[in-house]
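User: Last request for today: this protein with (~{Z})-2-methylbut-2-enedioic acid, please.
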Amino acid sequence: APSDPDLVQRAAAAKAALGERVFVLGHHYQRDEVVQFADVTGDSFKLARDAAARPQAEYVVFCGVHFMAESADILTGPDQQVVLPDLAAGCSMADMATAEQVEQCWDTLTALAERDGRGIERVIPVSYMNSSADIKAFTGRHGGTICTSSNAERALRWAYEQGEQVLFLPDQHLGRNTAIRQLGFAPSDCVLYNPYKPNGGLTDAQLREAKLILWRGHCSVHGRFTEQCVDEVRELIPDVNVLVHPECRHEVVQKADYVGSTEYIIKTLEAAAPGTAWAIGTELNLVRRLADAHPDKRIVFLDKSVCYCSTMNRIDLPHLVWTLESLVAGKVVNRITVDPETARYSRLALEQMLALP
Ligand code: CIZ
Ligand code: SF4
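Assistant: Here's the final one, the structure of the complex with (~{Z})-2-methylbut-2-enedioic acid:
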């Protein structure tokens, strides 16, 4: 639906009044009505870095979800205030690993290592960018690294140089897909740790022998694509190229032609020849925008049902207008802050990612 012209005009006026004092970041999964006001767009990692690249901006308005705004707060200067236009914009995947659950898992692994007469240092945490600041800090405290969907292979290879076993949080699919497709692991090298069961629902032997312990988290958007979606689109468009994000389930990734991060998906479509057909397995706002940007290619969504990220979509034009107008009035609403201790250890894990070979 077209945006309300009155709200468009108010957002533009408020943004103009703030000038260089505000920097608006827009994630690729945001609505068009919001993205039109973004100074930069990107995936979660690119936006966190871009936020830090504009130190003169007093206010960083993060049109994305909560964990992304936390990362921006961690990486920006002390005088910059990060604002999330709707505090209910969380991430169901990030919420699947709470600090308490992860500490309990670590206690379980520590106790097992002690019983075996081995150190817990053999276990290296690797956490996906899509996690809370608490989980990033946990990762930094225990000598691990953060990863994104672009560098998960490098992060895992690095981790196996530091230790023998990896605890991968919170997206089981990114962990499994990377280990099997890029590191050549067998499915049996991986176990799934269920935080709602004692010992993760695993035996001591399973926990001890697994090369990779996958946290039982997933993305509710990417997790919806099925093998049937791939079969159906291939039947409908025989020469279609199926391109999916590695947050999709392993069976779907195995059936796809290309697999990669948000930035990879964007670049692949830019480089694709005119007249080619593509079915994309990622969030729908992005797929629609890509289809509009490439009218010379046939770009379809890999599912027949609608598949937005509902929490991303909570950031809409009315929330953006309210946020910007509040800032004009000198009132900072919905500020996201990470406490200094958490920020310090999170930064360690993020810096480790940046130092990956
Ligand atoms: O699924 C997501 O939320 C992704 C891929 C985010 C990001 O920007 O990395
Ligand atoms: Fe979280 Fe998935 Fe939404 Fe990304 S698309 S913010 S991982 S729920």
